[in-house]
Amino acid sequence: MGAAAGGVIPQDAAAAQAAEADALPPGLPPDPALRDAIARWRRWLVSERTASPHTLSNYQRDLAFFLRFLTGFLGQEPTLADLAQLSASDFRSYLAHRTAEGIARTSLGRAMSTLRGFYRLCAKLGLMENPAIDLVRNPKPPRSLPKPLAEDEALEVLPTAGELHDEPWIAARDVAILTLLYGCGLRLGEALGLTVADRPTADAMVVLGKGRKERVVPVLPLVREAIAQYLALCPWPPLPERALFVGVRGGPLNPRMVQRTMEKARHLLGLPETATPHALRHSFATHLLGRGGDLRTIQELLGHANLSTTQRYTEVDAAKLMAVYDAAHPRARKGR
Q1: Closest Cα to residue 224, out of 280, 172, 176?
Q2: Which residues are CB-contacts of 76 (< 8 A; sequence separation ≥ 6)?
Q3: 130-151 in b/e burial notation, b at 16+ Cβ within 10 A?
Q4: Which family does it belong to (predicted)?
Q5: What's the pLDDT tens digit per position in 160-185?
Q6: How far apart are CA 247 and CA 256, in angstroms?
């Protein structure tokens, strides 16, 4: 719900908000205490959380699913007192029930967050309290695997990026930044955060990563050469404090420009939409692993806080091996 200029909500809009918050949805259990708690929760969502009608509808639907489940689970319409007596096992039964209905784990996670918000507000208002809900963990969201490019695809992207601009220095800049992402495994934000003084001039460079943690990464001669060529052509003076990668007006390069370059390159090469700047970082790790790199070293190079994050690349490599096996081994083919 939008506010007027200066952040003041017009009187008619405020009245509409209040009416929306007070209009209880149909089908609620008859218990007066529960209905009052829901009404106060809705008013809190609108007035304190400034929830939009769409968000309010989603939260309301999540709570309605839960109350309908309780009606069947308890054999009667639930009351606010019933909600206060539920055990952690009861909440897990609700999760199992929704999972059996086919709800996605992301939606189920939001549903549990809705319930926690309702319970916490009830506790804050002194209406009821049930610490058992905090003993139930949200379902883990599905973990997506990194989507790297094949080695030949990654190597083909680099020169292709240089063919997309007529301005030589811009072409050299795009080649340099993509070479840096693939050759050193940097995140796009890390690369764009470099200053001229930070540019690699030796066999290693210091990178400031997430959480402002520094790490040292090796630098291939190819990477240094690409950056040196870009700086030699760049029309903007290489002041030490200036951003290493700049736009046409000399300011820090917008990450969207790098993403557009990759979009154009992948269209020319017929690569999937997953061929993004970040995919070059994934490619760096996957190709190192495929050539015998150990996980701990790759973890350090990528700046991962947890080894489990790096271990996803072993799953990528295993999936690739299985795909090759299924396609090539005669006993893996169907009907054999």
Answers
A1: 176
A2: none
A3: bebbeebeebeeeeeebbbbee
A4: Belongs to the 'phage' integrase family. XerC subfamily.
A5: 999 999 999 999 999 999 999 998 88
A6: 11
Report the number of secondary-structure helices (H) and strands (E) in the chain: 15, 2
Catalytic residues: 187, 210, 278, 281, 304, 313
**Phi, psi dihedral angles at 229 (to 5 degrees):** -65, -40
Q: Provide the residue range defining the domain that includes 227.
A: 151-328
For 63-88, b where at least 16 C-beta lie within 10 A, e where not — what string? bebbbebbeebeeeebbbebbeebee
- What pTM did the predictor assign? 0.53
The string of pLDDT tens digits covering residues 181-201 is: 998 889 899 999 999 999 999
- 161 and 178 Cβ atoms separated by less than 8 Å: yes
Contact 223/236 with Cβ under 8 angstroms? no
45, with CB counted inside 10 A (0-12, 13-18, 19+), is: buried
Q: Would you say residue 143 lies in a domain? A: no
Residue 67 lies in a domain: yes
Tokens in use for 16?
């509409």
Q: Which residues contact 2 (CB under 8 A, 6 or more apart)?
A: none
For every residue of 12-33, DSSP letters joined together read: HHHHHHHHHHH-PPTT--S-HH
Q: 307 and 170 in one domain?
A: yes
Instruction: Say if CB 64 and CB 24 are below 8 A apart.
Output: no
Q: Could you write out the DSSP letters of every residue in 312-330? A: HHHHHHHHHHHHHHHHH-G
Last-in-domain residue among 135, 169, 195: 135
Pair 74, 171 in one domain: no
DSSP 132-163: GGGGSPPPPPPPPPP-PPPHHHHHHHHHHHHT
| Adjacent-strand bridge partners of 204 | 218
In a shared domain, residues 112 and 170: no
Structural domain total, the chain: 2
